[in-house]
Amino acid sequence: MTPAILWLTGWGMPDSCWEQVRRQLPCALHLAPDFSRVSRPEEFYEAVEQTARSVAGKELVVVGWSMGGLLALRLAASRPVAGLVLVGATMRFVRESAERDRGWGAAVLQRMKRLLPKDRERIMAQFAEQMLTAKERGQNRVDTGTAGAQWSQQALLAGLDYLASEDCRHKAASLFCPAVVIHGTDDLICPLAAGEELAGALPAAEFVRLQDCGHAPHIFYPDVVGTAVTRMVKQIAQKHGQASVQ
User: Fold this and answer.
1) Is the residue at 244 inside a domain?
2) What does the pLDDT read at residue 140?
3) What are 158's strand-pairing partners?
């Protein structure tokens, strides 16, 4: 049985950001929900759950980046998954002042939500800039001027509400599936301490730290993310006594 791979992108980001990783698994069944027209926060998870249901009976590997990592954790808590690969992810995006090393204050998201309808391009460009280190900005792999271009205004606002409300800290300890947490040391969106906390909370997690990397490891280190996903797919295939997926 060839596992299905569910790809969950981050806030405002296109599904195409996974292409460098996905092409390393040409024989896998690739799935991705469309978040671009979501209008309410709960619709993000509804879209994920509906996509997962479409491959009922197949082993499912879930790869989540940033907001997609929160959705991956929530899915794994509600139905069996064969494995998780969590990239630049966290269990809780908004944190109180005592935990500010692991997340943003609620006021930052509230400000973004207030300004987004007035100056969408600037807010999205600023967010995209924060995803990258100075070195990464010089590599021109991310067009910060087009961030969020595919998402409707309603979807972006709903995504900010989802990030403000979702809390998976009480779910992680019950997720015994294999997991790989991949995190950049210079991530300003989901700080490194949030990734370390996540890996420590998951019972069967491997933590991969990427030095001098920001919030987009799958774009700047696609081979690292691809290797993690490929290894998980091969382990599932071997468990079922089948040839590994290349």
Assistant:
1) no
2) 78
3) none
